[in-house]
Structure formats: C-alpha cells, structure tokens
Amino acid sequence: MIAVVLLGGLLGILNSTMAAVATDTLATTFDASLSTVGWASTGFLLAVTATIPFTSWAVDRFGGKRLWLTGLVLFTAGSLAAGLAPDVGSLIAFRTLQGVGAGLLDPLVLILLARAAGPHRAGRVMGLMGLVLSLGPALGPIAGGVILANLSWRWMFLLSVPVGAIAYLLARRVLPQDVPAASGPTRIRLDTLGLALLAPGFAAVVLALSQTAEHAAFTAWQALTPLALGLVLLVGYAVDALRARRSPPLIDLRLFANRGFTASVTIMGLGGLASFAALFALPLYYQQAHGHGAFAAGLLLAPFGLAGAVAMPIAGRLSDRVGARGLATAGAVVAGLSGLVLTQVRAGTSEVWPVLATFTLGTGAAFFSAPTMGSLYRTLPARVVAQGSSVLYMLNQLGAALGIALVTLIIQTASTPIGGFHNVFWLVGALILIILTAIPLLPGRPRPPAVAGELTGEDEIAVPGAPGG
C-alpha cells in the first residue's frame, strides 16, 4: 500500500519540476512571451494551493480511497489534455486541471500514510514520504532535460498518462475501502464560507510571491494587489473560524495552540523555504560561474535530492525510537554549516566543493525534516490529521513560492552574481538558525505503541464538534 500511495504522490511533484525546465521551449513553440508561458506553472501551483483546504474536508466526507482515485483521474486527464494542447491558453487551462488533481493527491499522501502507520510508526512512514519529496525536485529537472533533448515537449505530460493509469489500477486493488468518517445523520457540513475565504486567500498570497519573483520587486503593483487581497481574505477566515459556531471550521486555528504542532509546521515551512532557495540558486551558480548548460547543472544539483532520499527513511525510522529533538538538532547544525560553506565558494572554486556541501546540506535537511514530520503526526489526534496535513502542505507551497521570490530578488539586486549567490546562502543559514530555536518545542521521546495514540495535558487539541471538544 505504501508503495502505491508514494507512486501517486510522486506524479505531481515530478511533473511540476519537469515542466519548470520547459518554459523557454514552450515560449518558442507557441510564439508566446516567457511571462505568458509561466502561467502554465503558476496556474498549476495556484490550483494546488486552492484545492488543499477542500481536501481536508472531503477526505472525511467521501473517504480516502474514493478521493484518491478521483485525484488520479483528474491528474491523468489533465496530463493527457496538456500533452495534446493546441495553444498556450489551453495548455494553461489543462495544467490548472492537473493542479486540482495534485491538490487532492498531495495532502492525501500524508493523510493515508499517517492513518495506516499509526503514531508509533509515524517517523518511519514520513521518512518514506520525504524520499518522494526529495527525489521529485532532484530528478524532475534531469528527466525534463532528457525528454526535451530527445523527444517532443508533449511527452513531459503524456508520460504521466500510463503511470497515472497504473497507479489508479493498483490503488483500486490495494487501498483499503475506508468508511467516510462523517456520514449519515452526523455528516459534517462543508464550511463553504471558510472555503471561499481560505482557498483564494492562500492562492492570492502565492500569486503575489510569484509576481514578486517575475518582477524582482516586492513593491510592484502586480505583487501588492494580490497580496493585499490575500491578507484580507485570510484575516476574514480567521475571524470567521474563531467565532462561536455549530459546525467546525475547515481548519481549526486552535490547532496552533499546541506548541508541538506549531513548532512542527514552522520548522517544515522554514525548511521548505531554505530548500527551495537552494534548489533555485545552485543551478544558477553552475550556469553563470562555470558555464554549464541546464542539463549539467541539473546533474550537479542531484546530490541534494539523492542525499535526502537516502537519509529521510533512516532519520524517520530512528526518530520512532529516540524522538525528534536530538536528530533534528544534529541535522539543522549540519545543514547550517553546509550553508556557510556555500557562502565561501567563488567562480573559480572546483565543482567538487559545492557538490559536497550540497550533499551534506541535503543530508542535514533530511535529518531535521523527517523526524519533524513524524512528530507532527504523533502530536495530532486521528480526527484532525487531515487538517494538520492541509496546514503543512499550504505552508510548504508558501515556502516554495517565497523561496523563489526571495532568491530572484536577492540575485537581481546584488552587485555581482557570486555576491547574490552568497547572500542566498546567508539567508539559508539564518533560516536554519531559526529552525534550531524551534526544535526544543518539538514533542519528546515517543511513548510505547500501546499508549502512543493517547494524548493528555498540553498535547490535547480540542476540536469543535468532536468528542470532548
């Protein structure tokens, strides 16, 4: 079951990162501007972000298996349509459909795995999930480069069709038929006002950050307008979610009253920001300082993802035995030192040194990410796992968009390309330092399996409409 779920989860991540290397090719093919073609990726990202809050409700309303199969159908149909798109407008529309499918699949990966594993094996399973998160950004640009060098750009999307079909057939056979948690007379109503505020609110903030990256300025009206709209919508959601009400909100903000949950999502959000900043800056360094092409730069970046893919499962398994704090602290220290090393490379520095520093950076990030993800699911009662997963994924999307925007701004405003590269990794070091201050707030050693699912004291999270809430 775990392998089948991870296969579906890899689809969206791999396809998204593959498409990122095709912007120039698509602009030439459709005789369109880079900013227009960029909406094929932006539309995908916005659709993912807007769909995630709905998924947190729908998984309990319709059941995990049914929603998973629906996500696979939407993603595969979007892939087929995108691969056959006759013009740039239809490509953007079909990529948005892909994003809706990915917005169902991405948080469901965590939800299905967390429910199947239980609290006492959360670290091990989250480590496997981290393998997918690490491999996607590392292998996507390489796979995209190989396809563009040997096949039509259309195959970047069409290859997802048979993989999606196989994942669908396997999921029908392997995934257990779960009963929706909320059905019949106790069915929880969809918080339609909350969805109308939260989904476009997060999407508007992501759009603002994407526009910041495109215009290399936080003060551009194209960024400030959606940012202001997004903040208004999110504040409106917070006011609505915290008022007295009969039915529970889409995401209960009282989750953040639990310090372990807050520390976990903060660490993962900042870690994602640091990782995406590194993933965006390193290829530019190899291209600008060493004159490598996009494919060679992707290969030199691969050690970051491969290190995470190897270290994530190990760190996750260890965290089930010894807890998250010690492993996360060691990982953050290694990642921080690796970032400092990258602030010292020059244009004439041999590629060996940044590659080694990139490998240790990926290893360190894995050792604070997998235990943190595991501790998140040991903290949450089963009834709010879906909400916790939605929060984690939305913050991950924000971290990705913010990381790209900051790197673009830093590099374009630096006096020299190398100076901009150094500034990016000073930022990475600062983010790791903040992560180190949050790690002591993570839950301590996991309790024995017999009582691991019981929450008492400060770990208790009251949820409106839930027993005891």
UniProtKB/TrEMBL annotation:
Residues 1-447 form the Major facilitator superfamily (MFS) profile domain. One of its GO terms (molecular function) is transmembrane transporter activity. The keyword Membrane applies. Residues 1-19 form the signal peptide. It is found in: Cell membrane. NCBIfam families: efflux_EmrB (TIGR00711). This is Drug resistance transporter, EmrB/QacA subfamily. It comes from Micromonospora marina.
